[in-house]
Amino acid sequence: MRVLFVCLGNICRSPTAEGVFRRLLDERGLAHRVHVDSCGIGDWHVGKGPDARAREAAARRGVDLSALRARQLDDADFAAFDYLLAMDHDNLAAIESRRPADSRAHVGLFLEFAGMPGRAVPDPYYGGEAGFEEVLDLVEAASRGLLEAVEARLEARP
């Protein structure tokens, strides 16, 4: 199983989701069965680590983002991942515009897994510390729902 989180620049929301979801997988003993990654629509931050504010907020909740590095969405991701999860509607539109007709991946908004269909994870980049805490709250809720969906798919596999 392979999960890809997608935001605009891959330095705030999607690496936060990657880190939180990895932690949940570790806690459930599923890290060896699920590959997790994140990327951005744009290329502005390729090779850079997550925003310091995102790293600090995540660290306060026991999530280490320090080893992550930004990368850009690649056409090969559509074949490589089972889930491509967008943080907002613009990210989703960008993914859909590049999605090959034969892609079998689940493409959608991440917060669908928190029971919040149509809702976006807000971009905290231009705001203060509270924005990064809100992102973590939303990401943690959606990650729990995603974990349930992933576990169900893993159980269904022979």
TrEMBL record:
<feature type="active site" description="Nucleophile">
    <location>
        <position position="13"/>
    </location>
</feature>
<feature type="active site" description="Nucleophile">
    <location>
        <position position="7"/>
    </location>
</feature>
<comment type="similarity">
    <text>Belongs to the low molecular weight phosphotyrosine protein phosphatase family.</text>
</comment>
<feature type="active site" description="Proton donor">
    <location>
        <position position="123"/>
    </location>
</feature>
<feature type="domain" description="Phosphotyrosine protein phosphatase I">
    <location>
        <begin position="1"/>
        <end position="149"/>
    </location>
</feature>
<protein>
    <recommendedName>
        <fullName>protein-tyrosine-phosphatase</fullName>
        <ecNumber>3.1.3.48</ecNumber>
    </recommendedName>
</protein>
<dbReference type="InterPro" id="IPR036196">
    <property type="entry name" value="Ptyr_pPase_sf"/>
</dbReference>
<keyword id="KW-0378">Hydrolase</keyword>
<dbReference type="InterPro" id="IPR050438">
    <property type="entry name" value="LMW_PTPase"/>
</dbReference>
<dbReference type="Pfam" id="PF01451">
    <property type="entry name" value="LMWPc"/>
</dbReference>
<keyword id="KW-0904">Protein phosphatase</keyword>
<dbReference type="GO" id="GO:0004725">
    <property type="term" value="F:protein tyrosine phosphatase activity"/>
</dbReference>
<dbReference type="InterPro" id="IPR017867">
    <property type="entry name" value="Tyr_phospatase_low_mol_wt"/>
</dbReference>
<dbReference type="InterPro" id="IPR023485">
    <property type="entry name" value="Ptyr_pPase"/>
</dbReference>
